[in-house]
Specification:
The protein has about 110 residues and is of the alpha+beta class. The chain contains 3 helices and 4 strands; from the N terminus they run βαβββαα. It has one domain. The chain has a 4-stranded mixed sheet. Helix 1 links the parallel strand 1 and strand 2. The protein starts with 12 loop residues before the first strand and ends with a helix. About 15% of the residues are buried.
């Protein structure tokens, strides 16, 4: 599959990551939208040949923190894992890397105000 990279946008795995306002501290509700824009720019090149990122605020707790799509079709965790297998990526490692990256970005973002 690596020979066919980069993929057209409609075939890329869309990873929607919803950021909890509380992770930005007591003023998180006022900062989360701006942080998401900041984080979006920082992650959009990660695995960009086959992944499209959407970093959004998580104001609605009924929505999952992470969600996967290809085109307009939602993928289960298992189907997202199979998709990433095509690129020799492990979903648990992939998610862990994203969580770590976002934690670093929160620190970097908050450091801008200190």
């Amino acid at each position: 599959m690596k020979d066919n990279l980069p993929l057209p946008q409609e075939k890329k795995l869309m990873v929607i990551f919803r950021v909890e306002p509380g992770c930005l501290g007591p003023n998180g509700n006022q900062l989360v939208e701006q942080f998401c824009q900041f984080a979006q720019k920082k992650v959009e090149l990660i695995d960009a040949d086959f992944v499209h990122w959407e970093i959004l605020p998580r104001f609605d707790k009924s929505l999952p923190e992470m969600q996967y799509r290809v085109g307009n079709k939602k993928l289960t965790h298992d189907k997202a894992a199979r998709y990433l297998d095509l690129f020799e990526k492990n979903l648990d490692d992939f998610e862990g890397h994203l969580h770590n990256k976002l934690a670093l970005l929160v620190e970097q973002y908050q450091g801008r105000f200190n």
